[in-house]
Amino acid sequence: MVAPDGPKLPSPAPARSALFGLPPAGRRLPGAARAALAFGAPALIAVSLGHEQQGLMAATGALAVIFGEGQVYRRRWRVIGAAAISLTISALAGGLAGELIQQRLGAGGSHWWQLLIVLLMSAVAVTGTFVNSALRMGPPGGFFFVLAAGVGALIVGHGVPPGQVALWTALGGVSALLMGMSGALTGAHAPEERAVHAAVGAVRDYAALDTLAGDRVDARYSTAMKVQTAWALLDDARHSGDGHLAATLTDAQRLFAEVLHRNGSGNDESDLLFDTGRPAPTPRPSVRYRILRSLSPDSHAVVSANRIGLAAVLAGCSTVALDLGRPDWAVLTVTVLLHQGPDRVRGTYRGVHRIGGTALGLVLFAALYALEPRSWALVLILMTLQFAIEMFVARNYGLAVVFITPLALLIGGGGQYGDMFPVLRDRLLESVIGVVIGLTALWAVDRRAHRRVLLRNDQRVLEVLGHLLRRISPSRVQHDSPPTPRREAPDPHTATPGPPSDPLHEALPEVRVLRRELEFELMGSTLGAIDAAHNEPEWAGAHWTRHQRIRRLGHEVLAATRQVPEQAPGDTAQLGRWSRSLAELA
Question: Are 334 and 378 in contact (CB under 8 A)?
């Protein structure tokens, strides 16, 4: 997006390509096969033992394998394990809520008891959205945890005790762990190799772009993100310091920088993740730091969680009031729309995908439902659907919903069949309710949240920069004796950066910790800027120059402090220039 006399801003993908485009599949086939096998293996075992409905819960636990895709194997087992435990807890909570609801309904209670599952799933959606955003974990987000809670409640309604719901979900998680790690047997370094090759390819494609191409801003962001992802995976694999992959990525980054400056992107409009000469990114900050710095009403995590909580409760209550039978479906729809944050344009695209995909998915569901599959046939159909979901979910969400819809409905049905037309009517109506309420919340609730998120993220950059400059200042080093105690994270609510009241005795984290935090905050600043540019380009354009100055200063300090020892002073003249710039921006 280009303002007449303003900076070039990143713009959302055109509606036609976002809604109907289908990027190349790439190397999704192995991951899709692992997801289908992890999904089906425990379910087939359960069916062979005569536990068909329990097998469906095992398939739900096996969804944990999706969270590990793309992660290096040194980290993948932890990610899948954490997802499996979370899915099991969500399913158990859903089972307990479902059991209580069934007891009350069986005793003649009102259908308003279904509000219990609405509140539970809303709480899971809020928690999952906050944690996913705070840790910047990316897809698939908190959707599957909400699904596990809903399925747990439904399966209990078919006579499976909550304890068995949790047990079989956990067994599915074990299957996910085994399948997710199986790729290490044939390619122990395949994830990081693919990430580096993707970054190299993106840099080459960017270098080949016409210098007058209108999409260079968005291509620049996309390329820089791929380079950042590749460095992060190399760090996870402990290969960021040396080796062939690190050298290859360094060469690609150098080419990227050369092309940027050749194309004129090294001026005051530059919104790069890497400036020329930037070293490899630092490791992620601690989980504690990432959670604590998000405990603010102006953080991306809290804004996203608040909005999804409000919309989920409203959507669920609406379906309960209409007595449609499946309030969980409306909550799931809201979760899909809102769990990625305050970007209204992309959220609207997801809403269109949800309605269109659900309508087509209900047609597919009707065809499968008419066959009344059970036992082995049902599991094989679910495996096929899961395979298709993995092939399309990252390429076109609308197509993925076509397969997600029958998958969720067949699992929730527990192998029970009856008149399909009320099911089709109610699920479509619940989806429409969820989309309408979700989009209303996205466009009407806290409409200027993207402004606060960007300003706060830029402020966080300035705060950490202030801490880092004070840590390496000659006056501090002169008066420091033993190294100062390490503190995991600066206070997220500290005042505007400036000289502290007692700088010589302030306990600051080590240089390497502060650099790690600064890198993390700079990435948050970029993500906040993209959201603001998509939601309100005029406002973002007015703040773009200051935002870019903050980012440029941050990257310059990061590059210059790469080799600064803990007790060595920085260059006095350079520190003075940085401090003056910091004071102006603050």
Answer: no
| Structure tokens that stand for 216 in this block | 């260079």
- Cβ density class 220-258: b for 16+ within 10 Å, e for less: bbebbbbbbbbbbbbbbbebbeeeebbebbeebbeebbe
pTM higher than 0.90:
no
Cα–Cα distance list, 504 to 471, 488, 499, 508 (Å): 9, 19, 11, 10
pLDDT by residue (tens digit) across 503-560? 333 456 788 888 889 988 998 998 899 889 988 999 999 999 999 999 889 988 887 8
Structure tokens at 67: 């969270």
Strand ranges in 221-375 using DSSP code E only, listed in sequence order: none
Alpha carbons 99 and 513: distance in angstroms, whole number: 48
Distances (CA, A) of 300 to 12, 466, 510: 18, 22, 27
User: DSSP label at 217?
Assistant: H
Instruction: Fill in the DSSP letter of residue 495.
Output: -
Q: How many residues does the chain have?
A: 586
Q: Do 127 and 143 form a contact (C-beta atoms < 8 A)?
A: no
Distances (CA, A) of 546 to 201, 230, 237, 573: 32, 29, 36, 23
Quote the tokens at residue 128: 């999952």
Dihedral angle computed from the Cα positions of residues 102, 103, 108 and 114, in that order, rounded to the nearest 10 degrees: -40
Q: Can you read off the two tokens belonging to residue 385?
A: 């659907």
**Torsion-angle region of residue 213: left (phi > 0), alpha (psi -120 to 50) or beta?**
beta
DSSP-assigned beta bridge partners for residue 218: none
